[in-house]
User: Fold these one by one.
Assistant:
Number 1:
Amino acid sequence: MSGHTDMILVDENGIRIDGRTVDQHRPFKIEAGVLNNADGSAYVEIGKNKILAAVYGPRECHPKHMQNPTKAIIQCKYNMQTFSVSDRKKPGPDRRSIEISKITAEALENVVLTELYPRASIDVYIEVLQANAGTRCAGLTAASVALADAGIPMRDIIPACAAGKADNKVLLDLNKEEDNFGQADVPIAIVPSTDEIVLLQMDGNMTRDELDKAISMAMGACHELYDVQKDALKRRYAKRVVEVETDE
Ligand code: CDP
């Protein structure tokens, strides 16, 4: 997020470098239940982002000193594959992945009924296969579908989308160039049934009015993404019913 580039990110007609208008998100694609060996899983594409999420649990939490006697803990690991970005990413955790893992787990704690599973751990793995800005939002979107696919009781599923600012215009769902050279990036996640915001971060600067506009744009996109998440889970459920009927 430098805010300085010779590149024109939004032209005089309000068209962005990938052809979108300022209030257009990238294409969404979600598939639930893509991994056989995890309890729940999901694959998400948002534009050029490609993300896999896998869930294990609830299972007994180890080491035992991490157990909470009143509820399950959610342990999240966000990881970018070395080949997910153009400059090879050094393998292993870094400050950024630790931060994203933490904010993802905290957002999910708002919807997962952790009180049903004292002393347990629910483990969420997010693997970024290809990154193009907005991976924390795509990862959280995938993780909540994977949790639902694992049959873990939840109040709702969480969609997440960013909005931001580049070339002095408020934009929905920034791509990598807009994220790197734009003026602000605001990732947001919501609980759609209540419109409660469970993740709100901001990198860069915006006026209060611009921030209000960014939040409202991102929340609109989250509701669209929510429909795509629900469709993925319905397709997964229908497939399971067919599998059970064929086995009988
Ligand atoms: O991905 P997200 O927008 O949630 O997080 P970010 O820290 O704002 O990163 C923006 C983008 O920068 C990522 O999606 C990647 O495309 C890129 N990036 C990279 O190329 N190398 C890294 N080590 C980290 C991020």
Number 2:
Amino acid sequence: MDHFLYKNGHLHAEDVPLRDIAASVGTPFYCYSSATLKRHFALFTEALSPLPHLVCFAVKANSNVAVLKLLGDLGAGMDVVSGGEYLRAKAAGVPGERIVFSGVGKTREEMGLALGGGVRQFNVESEPELEALSEVATTMGIEAPIALRLNPDVDAKTHDKISTGRKEDKFGIPIARASEIYARAAQLPGIRVVGIDMHIGSQLTDLAPFEAAYTKMADLTRQLRAEGHFIERLDLGGGLGIPYTRSNEAPPLPSDYGAMIHRVLGDLGCEIEIEPGRLIAGNAGLLVSQVIYRKAGDEREFLIIDAAMNDLMRPAMYAAHHDIVPVSEPAPGDDIAPVDIVGPVCESGDTFARQRDMPLLVAGDLVAFRSAGAYGAVMASEYNSRPLIPEVLVNEDQFAVIRPRPGFDEMIARDRIPDWM
Ligand code: LLP
């Protein structure tokens, strides 16, 4: 459920008409709903209670500091994968004890940054990383709390590019080597083992792969405890999928996911950590864009809009579907015809939808891409020298620009001409 509904013929974000935001900030822009973000966070906390738990928002899904602050103020932890994300979480006021540091290639600098500023745990993905962390922590005279990210060799049955738990994927430590590497971790100075971590992929629409992975985790918890390790936390990763269409998709609900976690892991007495990103932010955000031209090709019609692949990369990168709806509500019986919806970037890949049934929109009309709150703004680039687009946060009848649109001057001023020129 989200809070983007038509009221009086106009699409609103909560109580704010999107056309008012467009008039004020220009197009294109991202727009997030506070109410939806809060609701999605609450769904996870409800699903996991009464188990001791921490819901760590995956910052990679949406790293705007205002979004992080909204969630952090509700008690969310954060899952970060870079020094930049760590500093964003801190800038949002999230204390180090609620920040989990994940990622396959943490540098020594990033380790030092997080150890210095406070961190809940590092999810360590390899032996060399473990050794590096031991060195950094020992030099700083600090103990680094760690979980090892294990690769359970489970196929998440999702898009190949976002599947992470098969043995051919680059992530984690093969589960068969867990015993050996936990034993190594226990000996290393500056390292304190606190738990086990897994993350098998993103946009999972079936609970079975999660259950297969968590069953392996439960067995391993018992085994590692028998081997003398102190396993007090289980980090289950993120990955629960969302509906990208309003029609027939019905991925499992957080409550179903929570019930399965209770069943498989509930009797271990561990604190449960999860790292959802998409489910919290995805359907809490829209991308709003304006039609520049309607163009008749030989075989099909094109709607050329002012958003492009650099602003929302998912369709070009994963052939991902996003529902695209007119901001002015079509009347029943209005003509509908198939169009290709494309951006202005000079690549055929800059196509958001092919032969999509739409009302007969014309230049100046606004459209909204649904499910754009996760992996939207964060993946944007300035390709074709298109400045990053603004982000807006709505709260009931108010809205605020939480990242302004940079001017062309600002963009160009970042470049430097060498002295010798
Ligand atoms: N934890 C770890 C260690 C992850 O690698 C990820 C996502 C998450 C949590 C959050 O997963 P979520 O709950 O959001 O599914 N750019 C792609 C998605 C990449 C996901 C990468 N890792 C997309 O647009 O679909």
